Amino acid sequence: MANIQSLRGMKDIIDNDSELFTYFIENCAKIVKRYGYNYIETPILEETSLFQRSVGESSDIVSKEMYNFTDKGNHEVCLRPEGTAGVVRWFVQNKKDKAGGQQKVFYHGPMFRYERPQKGRLREFHQFGCESFGESSVYEDATIILMISEILKFFKIGYKLQLNSLGDETCMPQYKEKLVEHLNTLSLCEDCNRRITTNPIRVLDCKNESCQEQLVGAPKITDNLSPECEADFTKLKEILDSNGVEYEVDTNLVRGLDYYTKTAFEFVSDNIGAQSAIAGGGRYDKLVEYLGGKTTPAVGFAIGIERLLELIVKNEIKEEILYIGAMSEEATDTVFCAVNKKRQTTKVITDYKVRGFSKHLNNAQKQGATLVALIGEDEMENGNIWVKNLETKEESKVSLEDF
Ligand code: HAM
Description:
By secondary structure, the protein is α+β, with helices and mostly antiparallel strands. It folds into 2 domains: 15-171 and 225-311, BirA Bifunctional Protein, domain 2 (2-Layer Sandwich); 321-399, Anticodon-binding domain (Rossmann fold, 3-Layer(aba) Sandwich), CATH 3.40.50. Helices cover 35% and strands 22% of the residues. The mean pLDDT is 94. Histidyl-adenosine monophosphate binds next to strand 6, strand 10, strand 11 and helix 12.
């Protein structure tokens, strides 16, 4: 019988990758906490209708990619394809909309989309995201963008920021009508023809070359914004300009989720292949209301952790790893004590096998140790420990007490 394998598009995260993974989350959390975000953990499984009503029936995520099934109690449930909807469900369920004021939360965890796996595109992937409720000022959109740039700078990751405004209920419907009129004069691919009736703005980011060529003269949303949306978009660009954040306006950036209003953005990298979006987000002032709450302005983003980790330079997280080993049976007790003491401040690896000098050194190197400390008969007798720094090759004797 063949051994069981992990599912296609899903992977185990271990060794260097899991080190990077926790390093990334810990440092992101530190940064966003400074901006007032609190940690939230929502369930991975939610009612399917939550995503149908938020991400949108016409989106690829809901129409093709959801891991949905009927549970034993006959409920239609689904593994979350993204994090925003669950957070908004929590917000409404706990009447945070009625309480007024601001709520800022961050989360990280697995998301599931039944997409065709390829480099940078998984079926189970992880996001780190933030959602800010109750602030309609465009300064909040700018703050979120500045916060993401701070995160990317912290990890020394280069990026391009693409920016658009998707208007609101006062200008989007008229724009869509104008767009559909224009699209009906073109000869587009099958997917686009379907989208003309389900969600015409999604035609704008079709990847088909012939469609893109024909779309050059299509009306642009940014030329059709209401005065309020236009003023917000102009202000956002001004704030970014005066804070040294470079961006490019991409009027075809519509995002794959239907809940956005006004600001929409994506951070992309040239260094990870075709799946270049490392983070995406925007404003979603209508979503709380769609999910049954009181209208509440909101804005947020999510970073794709696997894509981002591809870009973190591994030696960024070089840490000290101390290997302690016993060279005689009698030294094992002392090794045990030393390991427990040292673990209060340092990462320590050990096992309780007695080995000779070179076998220990080999073992330490294999496990990525940076420092080796060995205790044998001699060391027990004269109260010293032999220590070697595996990077500088420096050797020393340290008294057991000092150690
Ligand atoms: P999204 O653009 O669908 O937005 O996903 C955010 C990020 O998750 C993407 O930029 C990408 O890095 C990563 N990602 C998406 N799909 C995959 C995949 N199949 N494999 C690997 N990584 C992937 C959202 O999910 C929104 N909830 C973001 C948001 C929060 N908007 C407002 N608040």
